[in-house]
Write a structure and sequence with these properties.
Aminopeptidase; Elongation Factor Tu (Ef-tu), domain 3; eight-stranded mixed β-sheet; 17 strands
């Protein structure tokens, strides 16, 4: 295969910035999904959405053999849970939100009529905190939207169930890292979109139907992938998600493995990962000089891979992970080189899949 060029163009990077900055909390992903669909439309033959917001584009939709490349679109967030008489707002998680990072963060509270009300997570000054009272947790973090009582808060359209997202925006750090909230896992949606673009630009003809899937509700139990598998009924699914960079302070490599940003994609061994498909991906990496790292998951991978693998009678599935620093914070970081290498690995791996590819262990 020829050397792949123009993996991430300035136009693609501009799309990434817009996409990451568009709020897409779990259960409310439609704004980001529209940005994503508008980007991939020139590179696909048709597109669809399901009832809960999963979006997918299709190349060769008439083909009977179906291959999925997939990422999830939702970001962690909060729900308004309780409004006190003096106008402070208490929250519950929507996904795996971390109370420890909340104090002093700026947020947007999304109302039913489409408004975004500004607020901040307040926190007592260091001078006033008592010993033992210093750890943020779900029971003591709160929002301040500048109101003095419950009635003023409700007059803004805020009520229990309004979703809350952080304001933090995309940036590039030291010309080598992408930084922002929701890289977990809208960077995955970005990467599979680039695969679709590169297939189109390089006039690659695939012998099967390729479904480029951006699933919802991964952060609350892989639910979007579970639903869309039943709709598409694919034969093969190649999932991409983020994994932990364990080479930053305070992380135990013996417990969590040894993975480093800049050292390439991470390939996972797990019960839900089909070994023959994983071997195909490893061969693609070696044939195209793509460095990769290895991970073992003792049970589930914790990603949409598990939902695909155990649906529809067993879908041949594998996982390519992108090393990420500071997961579930607003300063998630991924190395630009790793992003490029994941795109390349997906691009070359799917080209090794044949029409009606037989992955069975016993024939």
């Amino acid at each position: 295969m020829s050397e792949l060029a123009n993996i991430i163009t300035p136009q693609a990077e501009a799309f990434l910035e817009t996409y990451l900055n568009t709020p897409s909390p779990t259960g409310f992903e439609w704004r980001g999904q529209q940005v994503w669909l508008d980007y991939i439309k020139p590179y696909i033959d048709e597109y669809h959405t399901d009832n809960y917001g999963t979006a997918y584009g299709v190349i060769n939709p008439k083909a009977k053999y179906k291959v999925v490349i997939e990422a999830h679109a939702d970001e962690i967030s909060w729900f308004v849970h309780y409004i006190s008489d003096d106008g402070f707002i208490y929250v519950v998680r929507n996904g795996g939100s971390d109370a420890v990072i909340a104090p002093s963060k700026r947020v947007n509270i999304h109302t039913r009529d489409g408004k975004m009300i500004k607020a901040v997570f307040g926190w007592p000054a260091i001078h006033l905190r008592k010993e033992g009272d210093t750890t943020p947790k779900l029971e003591n973090i709160f929002l301040d939207c500048g109101c003095t009582n419950r009635e003023e808060v409700e007059a803004l359209g805020i009520h229990a169930g309004c979703v809350i997202t952080y304001e933090d925006q995309f940036m590039v750090l030291n010309d080598r890292y992408y930084v922002g909230r929701a890289l977990d896992n809208r960077v995955g949606g970005f990467m599979i979109a680039q695969v679709a673009r590169l297939l189109k630009e390089n006039n690659i003809k695939l012998p099967f139907g390729l479904y480029i899937v951006n699933s919802v509700q991964e952060e609350v139990g892989l639910r979007g992938a579970e639903m869309i598998t039943q709709t598409i009924k694919p034969h093969v699914a190649l999932v991409t998600d983020v994994g932990h960079d364990t080479n930053t302070p305070m992380i135990n490599k013996i417990k969590n493995g040894d993975f480093k940003s800049g050292n390439g994609p991470v390939l996972t061994y797990a019960p839900s990962v089909h070994n023959k498909f994983l071997d195909l991906i490893i061969d693609a990496a070696r044939q195209n000089d793509i460095a990769f790292q290895r991970e073992a998951s003792s049970r589930g991978t914790g990603t949409d891979t598990d939902a695909f693998a155990y649906s529809s009678g067993g879908v041949v599935s594998a996982l390519i992970s992108l090393p990420l620093r500071y997961m579930h914070t607003t300063v998630e970081m991924v190395h630009k080189k790793d992003v490029e290498q994941v795109i390349k690995l997906i691009y070359y791996s799917i080209q090794k899949i044949e029409a009606n590819h037989n992955f069975k262990y016993i024939n």
